Structure to design on (952 residues):
């Protein structure tokens, strides 16, 4: 069974079954991805206006054995949203399906279509005095369907979980074009296999998510943010533990940053105001949201005092206004853009058992020093054991002279992560970037089960071929 | 492809590949289930001492096409743990695999084997000043493997989630006898399809869970419990909303109870001390756990005052000691036993969108009144929209005279739940009791996907045949 490229005849057929409005021009932006590693191809770009139209399209592709690459906001970092090789696919964009289908503030539930932009969902929740906590740097363009398909993480996982944990129900088009109506607004539903979580994180290879029932939360009564200078990643972990003793689930985010991040900001965005006169080696951003009766600034102050007495922190700032909170967050959220401007040789989205994090940083840094004069920007969601451990050329040089070392760097980092029982993809997914890593490090029994599931649900292999799993030779 | 009953020859073969200690006597208790609906059968009872022995057993069964029924604590309420018909199976008990493989208090993680009893896990967590929050009435005999296989719920789902939400990683034996080593201690891991959540809730039909990495939590600094008399289920929902405004995630449990529960306790356990002199129509148990700096009794008092002013509550008691907290909880946790002693005609473990709960109770009660002079005990986890809506004979009669109406009652309740976008199995699962309900109410696309997954992972259909999905005719 082989897949077929989109042909003029096939497009003509689609024009017969889908409305004109669904056909869009393939702008170059649809064929690019944020890290510029690959160029995609698309025989046609289709943006259906309804779930039924998605089903019509997928059914037509299944009948003609034409590949379909689902496309959300295009912000994925592992190439899951584009097809650089193999038969030329239909690009299926959810951009026209952005409706909020319903909001139930008293149930803390919102039902939205897959093309809704994450930031717009934040605003919709805010309008009914609720919080939708999934948040990440690309929130202004990422779409919820893509967030769910990749099980996005971000800065609030510590308290609220990842995309998977924030979804109660899904509507999706399965690979044969049938519609699964699974938009339940239920907190408990033990009626059979967990198809919802199987589709979440399957990166468009098992179904096309068209809508989701999302969990909302009451807003914390008071919020606060602090930057604290820590002696080491180990001290940061002790500080996290102390913060949770003080505030329980009140700790919403706990982000570790390294001086390299501040250096990169200074080098690439010299106008940006940085919070420290003297850049510290390591520091953390702590964000808290507390119930009635507790003052966030006081709670952060008490934490700082106790942490200073214990020798964990040497300096710190507690935001005194909403503007200052934003400014602290801006440092954290602008670091990925600074990284892009510097240009990494190899980036790693890894996770480790929490207690293994300091040892990993020590060993990884030491091993990379042997390999070359690299700069390392290690930062991320320490509370989740999730580091973005990114390797850059020496100051003043570009990565062009170092791309030959990319594979060796990646191998070194991922081998170490694997040896320490970690994951080589914490929150970005596998996409096309890490297919070989999954083959190398994945559990063989799990991989066999994944292949069996893919073959069972998508026997022709039309949905996002080449993402997550290698395309079988007889389909190439 | 048909399945074969266990034969003497097959047992002899197993004795050649498994140690003597794994073979146990089939005591009658293994063939019973708490509601006494079915009698199981077992050709042999095997309790392996290790994951490798589980794998050896499953491989042997797969080769001989002999069915395997995994058995945990035997406390399941839908008959998933026993086989009343079809080829006689191997009963695979996890009771000898109870080890705690590791505890990492600083990571809030514990790794335990599947046969560990839930209450023992609570004690292990307590010993390192941590909380494992999954809790249910059968905690003294339920085993964690069964809790995970059925995605158990219980009283703390509101705050901490169900079994699925409390599991970071699994080790399991798949239907071909291979071992999936998935015991990750990671908070984030986006490396491929979510096999963990597919096995959780699959009720032993896709794999045998042998060990799990569980999430622990810091204990709340202070805990409190109150009983409050509410005017109606609607008032209870408003009270819940008010409680969450006051205390955010601090609300750990919010249990609705009806006077019928108190009546049943008085009738079946006359020595038990009940909390109300005058039994109220509706009341709730609220359990809270707060961070440092907040006094639980004060917080409950403040909530009561505001709720009384709003006309939501008319009476209440706040526990003044740990003993009183236990006494309040005992009322809630003894109601299932009182129900068993009265003997329900039909029991329903249902969930609804939160805002649909009051309407459901009104409509359900009215429709049942048309059908007969039944007593209804409606209670449960209101915070999750999960009701145990159980129908009993009139006072002084047994269910024997009413079993002919069982199907009509169940149909009436489940039709109404389905019409109101609810679930006919909120937390107990499908087992063998609700296979027909799943066929009737399940989404066809989801059912087709489930069947495809089952056939792909367990092509011979050896694992727990007849649970969740009907056995295909050619396997009967």
């Amino acid at each position: 069974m082989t897949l077929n490229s989109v042909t003029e005849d096939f497009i003509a057929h689609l024009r017969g079954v889908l409305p004109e409005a669904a056909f869009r021009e393939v702008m170059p932006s649809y064929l690019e991805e944020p890290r510029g590693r690959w160029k995609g191809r698309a025989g046609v770009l289709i943006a259906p206006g309804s779930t039924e139209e998605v089903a019509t399209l997928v059914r037509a592709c299944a009948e003609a054995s034409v590949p379909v690459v689902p496309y959300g906001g295009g912000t994925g970092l592992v190439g899951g949203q584009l097809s650089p090789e193999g038969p030329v696919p239909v690009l299926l964009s959810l951009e026209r399906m952005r409706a909020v289908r319903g909001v139930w503030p008293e149930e803390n539930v919102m039902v939205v279509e897959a093309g809704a932009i994450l930031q717009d969902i934040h605003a919709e929740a805010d309008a009914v005095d609720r919080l939708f906590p999934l948040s990440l740097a690309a929130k202004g363009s990422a779409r919820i369907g893509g967030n769910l398909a990749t099980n996005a993480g971000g800065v609030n996982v510590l308290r609220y979980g990842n995309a998977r944990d924030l979804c109660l129900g899904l509507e999706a088009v399965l690979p044969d074009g049938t519609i699964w109506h699974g938009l339940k607004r239920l907190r408990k539903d033990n009626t059979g296999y967990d198809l919802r979580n199987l589709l979440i994180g399957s990166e468009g290879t098992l179904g096309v998510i068209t809508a989701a029932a999302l969990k909302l939360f009451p807003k914390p009564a008071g919020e606060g943010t602090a930057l604290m200078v820590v002696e080491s990643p180990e001290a940061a972990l002790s500080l996290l533990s102390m913060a949770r003793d003080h505030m329980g689930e009140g700790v919403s985010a706990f982000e570790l940053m390294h001086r390299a991040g501040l250096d990169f900001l200074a080098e690439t965005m010299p106008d940006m105001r940085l919070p420290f006169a003297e850049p510290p080696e390591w520091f953390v951003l702590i964000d808290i949201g507390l119930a009635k009766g507790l003052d966030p600034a006081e709670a952060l102050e008490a934490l700082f005092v106790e942490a200073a007495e214990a020798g964990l922190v040497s300096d710190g700032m507690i935001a005194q206004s909403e503007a200052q909170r934003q400014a602290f967050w801006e440092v954290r959220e602008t670091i990925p853009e600074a990284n892009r401007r510097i240009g990494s040789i190899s980036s790693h989205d890894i996770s480790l058992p929490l207690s293994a994090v300091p040892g990993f940083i020590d060993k990884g840094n030491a091993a990379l020093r042997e390999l070359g004069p690299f700069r390392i920007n290690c930062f991320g969601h320490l509370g989740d054991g999730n580091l973005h451990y990114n390797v850059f050329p020496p100051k003043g040089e570009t990565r062009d002279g170092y791309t030959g070392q990319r594979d060796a760097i990646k191998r070194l980092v991922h081998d170490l992560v694997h040896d320490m029982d970690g994951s080589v993809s914490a929150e970005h997914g596998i996409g096309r970037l890490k297919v070989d890593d999954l083959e190398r490090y994945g559990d063989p029994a799990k991989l066999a089960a994944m292949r069996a599931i893919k073959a069972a649900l998508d026997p022709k292999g039309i949905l996002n071929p080449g993402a997550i799993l290698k395309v079988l030779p007889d389909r190439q």
User: Anything to note?
Assistant: The CA atoms of residues 2 and 148 of chain A lie 29 Å apart. The domain at 8-95+454-475 of chain A is CATH 3.30.43.10 (Uridine Diphospho-n-acetylenolpyruvylglucosamine Reductase; domain 2). Chain A has a mean pLDDT of 96.
